[in-house]
DNA sequence: GAAGAGTTGTACT
DNA sequence: AGTACAACTCTTC
């Protein structure tokens, strides 16, 4: 794979939450990449590679994001939308889809069709789904709140599904 | 209930 | 620039 994404200055941070280690990478504009809660900081960092390779550890840059994410993983009813994200490497549609996704209240779920509609075209459900699939902002964009119109979890091949269920359960029970 | 067709957007060749 | 792929949704069997 060849990515020509070039960030002038990248910084990252890793911190422990109630759900696991979370790694975040960001630029001056906001977070550009975030990992899911992992068992070890090593795994979390691996999640944000290779961007993290060119980034420097700057915990001070993400003191607020760390607090918010940490509180969220602890079950606090906080709004992750307060964390600024930088999606300049993404297309406008992706950005719109992600933004729409962040407006979903905790504990609530929306369908991909709804996301597509918010992003501009109701028929672009696949594109919306792909936006979630390509979502690199993990918790910042609560893609786990997005499900199929039937109510099934659908897709999410891989480690995302169990975590998604866990997050949803936490938010719903909250 | 299950299978097939349709549509939009992105990523890769 | 063109082709292939995607975490979908709707219509029909």
Helix count equals: 6
Name given to the CATH architecture of the largest domain: Orthogonal Bundle
Instruction: Name the quaternary structure.
Output: single chain
Which fold name fills CATH's third level, the topology of the largest domain?
Arc Repressor Mutant, subunit A
Name the beta content range: 5-15%
Mean pLDDT: 89
Widest beta sheet: strand line-up: 3-2-1-4
Structural class designation = alpha/beta
Unreliable sequence segments: 1-6
Main beta-sheet annotation: 4 strands, mixed
Taken in chain order, the helices and strands follow as: EEEHEHHEHHEH
Radius of gyration: 15 Å
CATH class of the largest domain: Mainly Alpha
In short:
The chain has 174 residues and is of the alpha/beta class. The protein contains six helices and six strands; from the N terminus they run βββαβααβααβα.
Describe the structure.
- The structure is a single chain.
- With 174 residues, this protein is α/β, with parallel strands linked by helices.
- It folds into 2 domains: 7-82, Double Stranded RNA Binding Domain, CATH 3.30.160; 92-172, Orthogonal Bundle (Arc Repressor Mutant, subunit A).
- It is built from 6 helices and 6 strands.
- The strands form 2 sheets. The protein has a 4-stranded mixed β-sheet with strand order 3-2-1-4. Strands 5-6 form a two-stranded parallel ribbon.
- The chain starts with 9 loop residues before the first strand and ends with a helix.
- The chain binds a DNA duplex (13 and 13 nucleotides) through residues 1-2, 91, 93-94, 111-113, 116, 119-135, 143, 146-150, 153-157, 160-161.
């Amino acid at each position: 794979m060849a990515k020509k994404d070039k960030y002038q200055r990248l910084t990252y941070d890793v911190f422990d939450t109630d759900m696991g280690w979370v790694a975040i990478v960001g630029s001056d504009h906001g977070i550009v990449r975030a990992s899911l809660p992992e068992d070890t900081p090593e795994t979390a960092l691996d999640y944000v590679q290779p961007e993290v390779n060119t980034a420097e550890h700057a915990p001070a840059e993400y003191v607020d994001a760390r607090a918010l994410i940490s509180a969220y993983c602890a079950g606090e009813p906080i709004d992750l939308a307060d964390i600024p994200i930088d999606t300049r490497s993404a297309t406008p549609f992706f950005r719109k889809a992600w933004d729409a996704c962040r407006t979903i209240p905790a504990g609530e779920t929306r369908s991909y069709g709804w996301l597509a509609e918010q992003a501009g075209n109701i028929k672009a459900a696949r594109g919306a789904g792909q936006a979630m699939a390509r979502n690199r902002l993990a918790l910042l964009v609560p893609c786990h709140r997005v499900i199929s119109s039937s109510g099934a979890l659908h897709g999410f091949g891989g480690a995302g599904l169990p975590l998604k269920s866990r997050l949803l359960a936490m938010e719903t029970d909250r």
